[in-house]
Structure to design on (811 residues):
């Protein structure tokens, strides 16, 4: 017999599987296809334990699906554009290409050491011109369809990464990557019109995503149903958006965002100095700070008045920073009687407060504190044509109809979602395929002139301008339309563009006629199961849903969603329950673990550590459990038998094996990986006992070993393959069919035995019908009531009447 030594066979099998092309996805296969994809990694240089968690555990499931008879595509690539490569270039003068490809090469070897069933023939990196060429192609298609457009707007400027960011990349006012407080800058930038799909993106009917992700996306899209109302001002009509048009008669002033384009014209000479100072101060604050709840309201009167569309009264026009230029129309009608912020503002500046909605049966009431402001549903009062109607968010339909009939309001739905800002002032990304011509204007680069490759001779200086702009010649080109001298756009695309459609590329990774070959992608898309971290809930996951819908409308796919199902794994924390990080010194290195325990043990421990969708803290001693377990599994197959000393029946073994098979099958289906490991460990205990019983060598025994070997294959692929071969099997364990449960093994026949002590009835016990005499007597003695009489006494005779009775004679 030998000891379990994973290092003696893990590399051997990894090499053999690769040589046999075991995981090459066969497009021509007649089996049903299954596309399992885990979000591809950024080539940072090293796979950490979180990567293992994200890749190995779904790998076990992909392997299981393959044994279930699916032709499984489990591909891998690299999300290779982005700032770390560029920052390495700035710091150490390394070409980002070289840095990236070296990292990829190393990470590929790490992936192989995990024993994943990745089809490496489909690998690609998004920084390769063969890939990003299609980003540019898509950009041109979007441009032609009005889905890509350039506009001047206030953007989020990250002062550390020296680039603009999309709204989705700003978390609590800080850059998602750098953590720096973002500044607001007015810039002309390219946007993708994701808002065109806002309504469709709220429909999750064709994508099975966790509730949490659906909620985050729904809130991010932020649909509001309401109305637009026009107010006449000295400089033309001003439209406001309101979700409470039922309170129109309670509007006693208007408030414009400080950045609103009409502010200058509305400001009177007396007010100008004060207004200008306020606008400047507001510009320096983040939207988050400006909207913070409980913050003291500030604002300035413009000096101008608007005409209320119903009462024709003159109401003052103010500016205040709690109104955002980026939402609705950038102006509001203020209803201090029924909106807390407007109330706070009105009380501070002595503006009129009117009651227009009253709780049913209530008395006339005007609030004097913010807590008293009535924001609920009630009856409309003091509102002329609306009097007596129901007021409140739930009842605005009829109110809008009434107001619309007299031409005062128009029904309007607004979304918080903004168009996706895609221009970045950085180098390591896809050049935007647009040329600016003095005579033809903005011209897209013709498809047959793509890709526009990134130049390699640039200076990497974080200047706030794209290195492409500072390059001596790159931007100089000729206009594709008139042939005259023209300039290229010098920005690159947000790297979330790359990951928005990569899942399609795996279907035909080297296709040269388009981003993908529809004939190959159609049978695969949408992805059957997409897995990855929750941190992408409103970035990658929203962008890729948008991209699929846009691609569908261009005619490239029939899918409306990129993934039929999505599941998120949790996070592996450090032993201290904190996020793993170098600065905390709590990082676990998977390479070290593989060197010490072998990949199968690491895979098992990661599956076992916690419910996969929750994650949990690492535990250095915890990994010994799976390590010991695999040692026991090994000796189960290869150690010498130590004479029959246990009493286990064939029926018991068959029951245990098939009950485990049923559980493991169900748990793989529902992605409950930790319980799979637990069930396999428990079965090991039964089998170790059975090996020392008369069951050893029977047909039930060899069936048990075979089924156990097959059950081990997805989670611990190397040791399963080694056992398969050392026990004289043909082929690979990984191309075997997943076994089916023999239901008859699960039917447990039992019989009832009467138990007497000194001839007196003390208990009835249930035992398996085929239980041996020793087993029946053992069960009888364990019975509580029997034990009570036997305790401390000497049993000098055990009488067993088969299938009927036990009598224990004591004195
Ligand atoms: C009058 C009113 C009365 C309002 C009332 C609310 C309560 P949601 O639900 O988030 O869409 N609003 C509109 N544009 C704004 C902007 N650019 N900045 C700040 N606030 C803005 O919110 C819609 C409501 O937020 C709108 O309805 C408007 O105030 C305000 F008792 O109009 B309401
Ligand atoms: Zn031209």
């Amino acid at each position: 017999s030998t000891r379990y030594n994973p290092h003696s066979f893990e590399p051997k099998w990894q090499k053999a599987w690769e040589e046999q092309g075991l995981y090459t996805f066969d497009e021509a296969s007649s089996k049903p296809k299954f596309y399992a994809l885990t979000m591809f990694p950024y080539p940072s240089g090293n796979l950490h334990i979180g990567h293992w968690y994200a890749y190995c555990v779904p790998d076990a499931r992909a392997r299981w699906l393959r044994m279930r008879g699916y032709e499984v595509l489990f591909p891998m690539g690299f999300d290779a554009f982005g700032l770390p490569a560029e920052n390495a270039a700035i710091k150490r003068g390394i070409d980002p290409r070289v840095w990236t490809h070296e990292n990829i090469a190393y990470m590929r070897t790490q992936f192989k050491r995990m024993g994943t069933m990745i089809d490496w023939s489909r690998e690609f990196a998004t920084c390769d011109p063969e890939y990003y060429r299609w980003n540019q192609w898509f950009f041109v298609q979007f441009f032609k369809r009005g889905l890509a457009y350039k506009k001047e707007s206030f953007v989020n400027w990250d002062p550390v990464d020296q680039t603009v960011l999309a709204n989705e990349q700003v978390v609590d006012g800080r850059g998602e990557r750098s953590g720096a407080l973002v500044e607001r800058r007015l810039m002309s930038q390219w946007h993708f019109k994701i808002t065109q799909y806002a309504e469709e993106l709220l429909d999750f009917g064709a994508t099975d995503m966790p509730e949490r992700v659906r909620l985050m996306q729904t809130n991010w899209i932020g649909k509001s149903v309401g109305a637009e109302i026009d107010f006449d001002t000295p400089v033309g009509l001003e439209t406001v958006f309101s979700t409470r048009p039922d309170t129109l008669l309670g509007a006693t002033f208007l408030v414009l965002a400080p950045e609103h384009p009409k502010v200058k014209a509305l400001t009177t000479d007396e007010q100008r100095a004060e207004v200008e100072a306020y606008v400047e101060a507001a510009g320096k604050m983040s939207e988050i700070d400006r909207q913070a709840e409980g913050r003291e309201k500030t604002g300035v009167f413009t000096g101008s008045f608007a005409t209320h569309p119903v009462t024709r009264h003159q109401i003052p026009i103010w500016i205040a920073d709690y109104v955002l230029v980026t939402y609705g129309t950038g102006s509001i009608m203020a209803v201090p009687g029924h909106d807390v912020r407007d109330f706070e503002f009105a009380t501070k500046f002595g503006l009129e407060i009117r009651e227009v909605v009253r709780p049913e049966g209530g008395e006339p009431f005007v609030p004097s504190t913010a807590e008293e402001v009535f924001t609920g549903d009630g009856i409309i009062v003091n509102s002329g044509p609306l009097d007596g109607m129901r007021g409140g968010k739930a009842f605005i339909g009829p109110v809008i109809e009434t107001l619309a009939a007299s031409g005062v309001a128009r029904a309007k739905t607004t979304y918080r979602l903004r168009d996706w800002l895609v221009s970045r002032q950085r180098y390591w990304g896809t050049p935007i395929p647009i040329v600016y011509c003095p005579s033809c204007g903005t011209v897209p680069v013709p498809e047959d002139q793509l890709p526009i490759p990134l130049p390699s001779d640039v200076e990497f200086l974080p200047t706030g301008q794209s290195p492409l702009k500072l390059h001596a010649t790159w931007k100089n080109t000729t206009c594709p339309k008139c042939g005259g001298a023209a300039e290229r756009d010098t920005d690159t695309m947000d790297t979330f563009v790359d990951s928005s459609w990569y899942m399609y590329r795996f279907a035909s990774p080297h296709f040269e006629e388009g981003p993908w070959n529809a004939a190959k992608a159609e049978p695969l898309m949408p992805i059957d199961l997409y897995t990855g971290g929750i941190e992408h809930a409103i970035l990658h996951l929203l962008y890729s849903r948008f991209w699929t819908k846009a691609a569908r409308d261009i005619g490239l796919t029939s899918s409306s969603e990129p993934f039929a199902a999505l599941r998120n794994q949790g996070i592996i924390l450090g032993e201290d329950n904190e996020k793993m990080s170098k600065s905390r010194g709590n990082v676990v290195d998977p390479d070290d673990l593989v060197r010490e325990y072998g990949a199968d043990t690491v895979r098992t421990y990661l599956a076992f550590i916690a419910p996969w969708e929750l994650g949990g803290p690492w535990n250095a001693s915890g990994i010994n459990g799976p390590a010991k377990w695999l040692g026991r599994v090994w000796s189960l197959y290869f150690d010498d038998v130590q004479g029959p000393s246990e009493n286990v029946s064939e029926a018991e073994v068959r029951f245990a094996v098939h009950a485990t098979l049923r559980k493991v099958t169900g748990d793989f289906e529902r992605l409950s990986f930790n319980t799979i490991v637990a069930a396999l460990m428990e079965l090991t205990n039964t089998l170790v006992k059975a090996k020392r019983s008369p069951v050893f060598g029977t047909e039930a025994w060899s069936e048990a070993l075979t089924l156990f070997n097959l059950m081990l294959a997805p989670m611990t692929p190397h040791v399963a393959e080694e056992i398969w071969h050392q026990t004289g099997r043909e082929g690979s364990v990984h191309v075997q069919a997943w076994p089916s449960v023999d239901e008859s093994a699960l039917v447990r026949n039992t019989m009832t035995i009467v138990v007497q002590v000194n001839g007196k009835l003390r208990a009835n016990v249930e035992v398996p019908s085929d239980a041996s005499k020793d087993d029946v007597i053992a069960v009888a003695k364990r019975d509580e009531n029997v034990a009570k009489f036997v305790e401390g006494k000497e049993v000098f005779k055990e009488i067993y009447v088969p299938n009927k009775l036990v009598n224990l004679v004591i004195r």
Observations:
- The radius of gyration is 35 Å.
- The mean pLDDT is 94.
- The chain is about 35% helix and 20% strand.
- The longest strand covers residues 148-158.
